[in-house]
Specification:
Layout (H helix, E strand, L loop, with lengths): L3 H29 L6 H17 L2 H40 L22 H9 L1
Length: about 130
């Protein structure tokens, strides 16, 4: 750990792990104190599965189960998006030095509602035509 941010991130991670372990430990302790441990837990889980099958919400459960894989696909795509953005910036920088501009598609921040302004040389060419 070289920075304060690294230290705080490490400490917070350990805190979350300890908190989850205490919650799980308390649930196990509470269940072990009962005359028939885990009976109510198993019964509740069976009721929940029966309800899911009866109401047809299995599709929602499948979507929840696929969420980590969608996140993984997003993480895999991030380097490619970064390289595209970096390449676009480099190309625009090089063309900017040459006095040109490269447009790679839709730019929502530029809305020419009254028409795009023409440069001085274009106005004279349009008048000559």
């Amino acid at each position: 750990m070289h920075t304060l941010f690294d230290f705080l991130t490490y400490v917070k991670g350990i805190e979350y792990i300890i908190a989850v372990l205490f919650i799980v430990g308390y649930i196990l302790y509470w269940e072990l104190l009962k005359p028939r441990p885990f009976k109510s837990l198993v019964h509740t889980a069976k009721d929940d599965l029966a309800h899911i099958k009866r109401t047809g919400t299995m599709q929602t459960v499948r979507k929840i189960a696929t969420a980590p894989f969608i996140g993984l696909a997003y993480i895999v795509a991030l380097p490619f998006v970064f390289m595209f953005t970096l390449g676009t910036t480099v190309i625009n920088g090089i063309l900017g030095l040459a006095g040109r501009e490269a447009s790679f598609g839709w730019r929502p921040t530029e809305a020419y509602l009254a028409g795009k302004k023409k440069e001085k040389g274009e106005d004279k060419q349009d008048e000559e035509k």
